Amino acid sequence: MRPIFSFILTLVLLISCKNQGNLTFEPFVLHGDACADCPEVSVSIPKALENTKLASTINTALEEEVIAILNFDEDIAASTPEEAIESFKNGYLELKRLYADETIRWEAKIEGQVIYEDNVFLTLELNSYIFTGGAHGYSSKQFLNFDKNKGKELENRQLFIDQEDFERFAEKKFREQEKIPMDKPINHTGFMFEKDSFYLPENIGFTEKGIQLRYNPYEVASYADGPLELTLPYDEVKKYLARRGKS
Questions:
Q1: Structural domain of residue 216, as residue ranges?
Q2: No. of H helices and E strands in the chain?
């Protein structure tokens, strides 16, 4: 009985270690049609390989983001990244048909990567650049946070015990970084927060250095000002986190 018990114990430990380990990903790469009259499109995102709820949630979330970024054709309800690329192409070709001499070749580049993973959290970063004419394109970064144990994507409010409490702390740190006096309005130095009140950005993610807050261009400042990032070390924010992971 002892050898059997030892085998079972070893098997349990191996399964346990595997469950606590990092996920396995492979690149998922797509390109638009290569032709002179086609927009230039490239997509490279990680694809989780495990046959689990978490892997399915991650892959679905990433595909939905790609679709949302590229879907420009109202006549096509894209349901896959491939269909979204076709939608982007059709949007460009329709504009080119209407304004042949004025339409500059469109471009879309989307890249994703895992930037943080511990025993509780996983964060993916999705960088995109879209050019559909005009003076310049638009670059943005999105964070997607996942609860590994529950196998679900997390909304920003679910990251914190009390989001309003964390927001007050974040405002203090933001003012310190941007040199905005505490007794002055948040837009005192030229920011464009609505109603002149601080609020958290749409994108909050876990990084190796801490919780990062990222305001994409136009979110609270002009395009010329570029993105704004505030990284708060874990030893300062751990008391605000709803759950705490460990490296």
A1: 157-240
A2: 5, 9
C-alpha distances out from residue 177 to 20, 182, 207, Å: 36, 12, 18
Local confidence pLDDT in tens for the 247 residues of the chain = 444 444 443 333 334 434 457 999 999 999 999 888 899 999 999 999 999 999 999 999 999 999 999 988 666 689 999 999 999 999 999 999 998 888 899 999 999 999 999 999 999 999 999 999 988 899 999 999 999 999 999 999 999 999 999 999 999 999 999 999 999 999 999 999 999 999 999 999 999 999 999 999 999 999 889 999 999 999 999 999 997 655 4
Q: How many folded domains does the chain comprise?
A: 2
Would you state the torsion angle of the CA atoms of residues 185, 188, 189, 194, taken in this order, to the nearest 10 degrees?
70
Distant-in-sequence, close-in-space partners of 48: CB < 8 Å, separation ≥ 6: 23, 24, 25, 54, 55, 56, 58, 59
Which of 138, 154, 170 is at the close of a domain? 154
Rounded CA gap, 38 and 113, in Å? 27
Amino acid 131 reads F
87 and 178 belong to one structural domain: no
